[in-house]
Structures are given as structure tokens and as C-alpha cells.
Design a protein that fits this description.
The chain is of the alpha/beta class. It has a single domain (42-180), classed as Rossmann fold, CATH 3.40.50. The protein has seven helices and nine strands, in the order αββββααααβαβαβββ. Strand 1 (20-24) and strand 2 (27-30) form a beta hairpin. It is globular, with a radius of gyration of 17 Å. The relative contact order is 0.19. The model has no long low-confidence stretch (mean pLDDT 87). The structure holds S-adenosylmethionine and zinc ion. Zinc ion is lined by residues 13, 15-16, 18, 30, 32-33, 35.
Length: 191
């Protein structure tokens, strides 16, 4: 499934809400207000050009991954039960009935929920958006490229832990602000 094609069908300029066009390999621009949006390492970014954008803070991201996002599977601690019961409810009571074709994971972070939703709904196109370039960098490594990353948990008393990635094809990542989404209204039937 060509997710770039779908992306250009539903994507709009987050500032003036008009059509976007891919001008070069590494740049998308607005056909109306001429704002430009870079594509870095295969991910389009619609968020402002902050320092974090230029220099992703991976250390902070890895701490998040280590201490909460993926702690369940690394250490079998079950700290994310609340979040997981929400995802389970979504699937058991809602997605199973409507089989959403396009799902948005808003604030996808390093891609844990995005990964699980995309794997549980292989019929759907799943879009993950986050404002942090560091989060998206790790998400791309782990759930698009399928790389295994090593987390340093020495300061928590567990040494180094490897977290296995998985290559997922029904998934598209982008940088942006969920309060100013670069999508046409009603582009998603699951969120
Ligand atoms: C709790 S974390 C990620 C949760 C993630 N779904 C998971 O499975 O671990 C929340 C995420 O929301 C992102 N975020 C916060 N404000 C945002 C905004 N206005 N637009 C997009 N992303 C945002 C943060 O960068 C962070 O990655
Ligand atoms: Zn525009």
C-alpha cells in the first residue's frame, strides 16, 4: 500500500489549509501560501523549526522509552495497564465493528501504540504524528526499519536492555502539532 499517495490525498497546509505539493525529494510546499515543509530521513515535518527539530534530543526520548513507554515488554512490569486497557477497549468494542480504514495516532511518541494498532489492524492505514523529532527518529528505527535498539538502564539497576524492532508496512509517520493537523477534515475513521 502506497502511503505517500494516500498522504497527498488527505494532507493540507496546516496554516492556510490549502493543497500541498512535493516540490523536491526533500521538500513539500503549500500551493497557496508557499510555506515549505522539510522531509528529513523520509519523514515530513510540519512542526515549527525549533532547536529540538534541528538537534533531536535522543537521550530524553530513550529515558521515556526505558521508563514508561516500553517498560512492559522490557521488564514485564505492567505499568501501562491503563493505556493498554484503552487500546484493548478500542479494538474489542469499536474497531472490531467499524474496521476503520484510516487511523491516526495523535502524539505517537516512539511508536509503541502506533505499532500495536498497526499490527492489530493490518487492513488499515495507520498514521502516527508527533511534535518531537527525537520521538519520531526512534519510532522510525524501531517500527519502520525494524531495528533493535539498546537502552541503557544502568541508572535504574537493570543494566543494558535490547528492545527488538519490527518492520511495519501499513504505517506512516509525520512530524506536526496535533492542534494544527495537516489533514483535511474527516480524513480518519479511527483515532
Ligand atoms: C505520553 S507520550 C507518547 C505516548 C505514545 N502513544 C506511547 O505509546 O508511548 C506523548 C507524546 O505526545 C507528543 N506531543 C505532545 N504535545 C503534542 C502536540 N501538540 N502535537 C503532537 N505531539 C505532541 C510528545 O512529543 C510525546 O511523544
Ligand atoms: Zn499554506
Amino acid at each position: 500500500m502506497d502511503l505517500w499517495r494516500t498522504f497527498f490525498k488527505i494532507a493540507i497546509c496546516p496554516y492556510c489549509r490549502k493543497k500541498l505539493i512535493r516540490r523536491t525529494e526533500n521538500e513539500i510546499s503549500c500551493t497557496n501560501c508557499e510555506k515549505k515543509f522539510p522531509i528529513k530521513n523520509g519523514i515530513p515535518y510540519f512542526s515549527p523549526n525549533t532547536m529540538e527539530f534541528k538537534y533531536p534530543i535522543l537521550e530524553e526520548v530513550d529515558r521515556y522509552i526505558a521508563t514508561c513507554a516500553f517498560v512492559d515488554e522490557i521488564l514485564n512490569q505492567g505499568t501501562s495497564t491503563g493505556l493498554y486497557s484503552t487500546i484493548n477497549d478500542l479494538f474489542n468494542y469499536y474497531y472490531i465493528k467499524i474496521m476503520p480504514k484510516r487511523i491516526l495516532d495523535a502524539g505517537c511518541g516512539p511508536g509503541r501504540t502506533t505499532r500495536d494498532i498497526a499490527l492489530r489492524a493490518p487492513w488499515a492505514q495507520v498514521f502516527g504524528i508527533d511534535i518531537s523529532r527525537g520521538m519520531l527518529t526512534r519510532a522510525k528505527e524501531m517500527i519502520i526499519e525494524g531495528k533493535t535498539i539498546e537502552l541503557n538502564l544502568i541508572s535504574y539497576g537493570w543494566g543494558k536492555k535490547k528492545l527488538k524492532g519490527v518492520k511495519i508496512v501499513n504505517l506512516f509517520l509525520l512530524g506536526g502539532d496535533v492542534e494544527r493537523l495537516p489533514f483535511l477534515d474527516n480524513s480518519f475513521d479511527g483515532c
